[in-house]
Design goal:
By secondary structure, this protein is an alpha+beta fold. It has helices at residues 14-26, 38-51, 109-114, 121-129; strands at residues 2-3, 34-36, 59-61, 70-72, 91-92, 99-100. Strands 1-4 form a two-stranded antiparallel sheet.
Length: 137
Amino acid sequence: MFMQTDKQENSNDCGVHSIANATALAFGEDPSEVTFLKSEMRAHLLKCFKNKRIQMFPHTKKRRTEESPIQKSERVTIHCTCRMQASGFQYQCEGCSIWFHPECQGKTERMIKKSKKPYCSKCNIRNTQHIPNLAFM
């Protein structure tokens, strides 16, 4: 989800704006509904550092319009232990049915394709704990 927020006016204030937006969220304010007073932002941040206490940045409230502040919304399916979007070759674990990148499980695509029932590392441990070691019987 992308929201239209107050923009910096130069190439030097991206960090100050990021902190101001994060502060607005922490104080329960919607960053898309405020306009920060740019001439006061740096001095305010220095004051917060000096006082060791963060406070809401100087701002004015934007007038509400019927237009939604959300500019773009996209549903992304997350898989694997890396929590990244689905990309490249993946396999579905036979135990938990979650999709994984082989390399995130310490395996190769070739190993997965050769396996009749590929498991993730977590399910593989669970399955091997229930199989008796025949070498010691």
